[in-house]
Predict the structure.
Amino acid sequence: MNDISQGLLAALRLIVTFDAELWEISLRSLQVSLTAVIIASAVAMPFGAFLAVQRFKYRRLIISIMNALMGLPPVVVGLIFYILLSRSGPFGVFGLLFTPWAMIIVQIVIITPIIASISHQAMRELWAEYHDLLISLNTSKWQRIKTLIWDGRRNLLTAGLAGFGRAIGEVGAIMIVGGNIEHATRVLTTAIALETGKGDFALALGLGFVLIGLALFVNISIHWLSRTERERRW
Amino acid sequence: MIRTLISATFLCAASMTQADTLKLAVTTSFENSGLADVLLPAIEADLGIDLQLLVVGTGQALRLGAGGDVDAILVHSRASEEVFVADGFGTHRSEIMYNDFVLIGPKSDKAQIGATSGAAESLQRIADAQATYVSRGDDSGTHKAELKVWQIAEREPATFGSWYNAVGAGMGTALNTASALNAYILSDRASWLNFKNKGDLALLFSGDPVLFNQYAYLPVNPAKHPTVQYEMAMQLEEWLLSDKSAASINNYRINGETLFVFNGQQ
Amino acid sequence: MFPLCLSNVSVARRGKSVLGPVDLVIDQGGPTMVIGPNGSGKTTLLRVMHGIERISEGTAAWAKPDHANHAYVFQSPVVLRRTVAENLSYPLYLIKYAKPEINTAVEYWIERIGLGKVANRSATRLSGGERQKLAIARALIRDPKVLFLDEPCSNLDGQSTREIETLLLETAAAGTRIIMATHDMAQARRLAADVVFMKSGRIAETGLAPDVFDAPKTSELKAFFKGDILE
């Protein structure tokens, strides 16, 4: 218990003193995870809507695979991409290993199935509601997908936030492909792992509280943004 | 609004990738010692290079070098280093400094390892008492040093019972485990001194020359991996062997204790 | 585009016949009321005519197919999760009308159905009657030549029913062909020019409204008017 209160104190001290390193790694955490969420959403959300709208032969199989991939172990993803991105691996020429882009790539791989699955769920419900009308209005496939995405945008936001939550709290994969390099690839989670390793539980816990606070802040501000949008329009 | 957010994010992400940097794989024990915090700013000031440290175990550091993913490595496991150079992954091996390993254990020291003639005898006593023991078990330099002492002690870890815990983790995690189990453990002195979660543990034995821990610097061979920054790696080696480096290393202290002894061939 | 000819049309779902075989010709005129007990196939017949139901056998063909000139109002109105105004503009937006045209049409219809005050509110918050009026206006906004309605006034109060019936009569007078399913006989009498009576997935009797209502020919229709329970 004492450790936890010391952790809270450490978090407060870091925040109040505008600790430069804390700012740096918090910002990097945000940059990496938000970039990953935006790229993953751009792929996963239309894909989820497409799966809701389009019937085809292997649809069920693809949905099952997508749901199974939600449980993809990050460490394994990290290891695979470590091998792929290594200088001696097939994508070594790009020199991405131990850069923030490597971390973004593994996060995209980890969260795309989550965002796609939750999006598909939401889009399927909305499609059941809209199906008759959109068929009657003779809409094209693309118009249907656009309508579902636009009208289901609040549910899609939840899908995006779920992906963001997973991404910003992830440590196994980004530790392997990012390397936890100070001033280059160190983010909140890898810093927590490092401080835990040094036995400095108070600092590790302090960083942990900052991480939780950051995740809460992003969630609340996005909900607040979507609420003001709703109030302005409705 | 969303569009600006997206482009801003991409800009930030793009600026995160930098080109002219030197990547150096170092061992956990080196990083945990805090010496890096002294050397790094001096190196950056003198050489103007952005030195990025990858903190890993010796085993992984050697793999990173062999894969060409770092430009040089700073590790402490002589036999593996010599293989690394012999296989052509490193151009050469130059010794920089040494520190030492220490035996840590519960203050009560039920195995009585404090008053022995050497490290091997201390480990024998732990084995005979079947006192709880934590081993790194991660193929790191520290782990290899530990295995060497067990060999001298004529004990085979593979035959040990449940009192012997190979955690397969870095020094910090292993120390945390030892602290939680109130167990004996072999640690490098620096990690131990900087460790903040000592609990009921204390330094019980040190000073046997068998526990000396030689650090060496190995630049990755550009013939194997043309992308490595060999020139920069050589500049760094020159700096590490300089008088300034020697002074920084010899003068580095934690709680008044000297941690490293410079022994580079200038 | 008229006439629409259904010949020998059957619809089966999971091997169970829900409609037919049915023969029917729909030409200009109307409004046509499709009546009959629950489960007699009224909805399926409308969907076949609208072209959104898979036909198992037979053919349903317009003389000149033109789906863009059909509109359909579903029994439980589908309301887009958008504002009232955006619900109305949606069908026009789909066929890429210019913004000023869309705005003019939306303003006209929103006033006509009396929802001007809630134009920018979410349509999901409307009452049942308002939703149904919105759905009808949204169906009419493309100025269709044919309008199908599936029991648009079920579960509505008298006031809403009256407003919708007035709207439909005005629409019919303006030249839109109305084909509507209803189980409310009083409403059928008020609106119908001709009647299609369905029972057990088949068309049991058709005719002009006065003939059908005053002198039903089949025993099934007589029993239906009498209020007997039809199996």
